Amino acid sequence: MKYAVNLPNSITLGRLVLAVVFFIVLSQYTHRSPQPWQLDVAAAIFIVAAVTDILDGYLARKQGLVTPLGRILDPLADKVLVCGAFILLAGPGFVDADGTNVTELSAWMVVVIVGRELLVTGLRGFSESRGLAFGASIHGKLKMWMQSIAVPSLLVLVSHESTWGAGAWVGVAKATLVWLTVIVTGLSAVQYLLRSRYILEESAPS
Fold it and tell me: What is the pTM of this model?
């Protein structure tokens, strides 16, 4: 019997708890009075949470413990963690004395990232309500990998920028991570729309 709250689902729930702890730590940071250790701790928590995303999926498939609850909780936990992270990174805590966001993130970029997650959630719910599976594609997995690399990398770069020296390479590294994440996320959204096009066309009134 597949219990709803099995080991993989318990790990997923743990990721939601880690997300809350991550948000609490990161929300305490302000770049105008920086405490770099807060960013290091937040980065470590995010990495642990990202690893649990790999672990719960592996265990669910390996042990045959895939459940409807897990199919809902797993992407939800991912979206809460990632969307919350980017919202905070683009927030006032990362604005310097000149009014510039030190992560290189702009508000519109966060809108793209969050909008993509809401779009895919809607498409998945619509598809599965019609009895059609809507699992993650290679584009979605690539997007998740890119976001999971970008968040802790940005935190570490901002945390140690003063130590390493505010050289041009740090800014280039941050901008590269941000733009790659936005581009991959946007392309993933387009791919999911194309993938769902036939479902939407069939549902359109004649």
Answer: 0.85
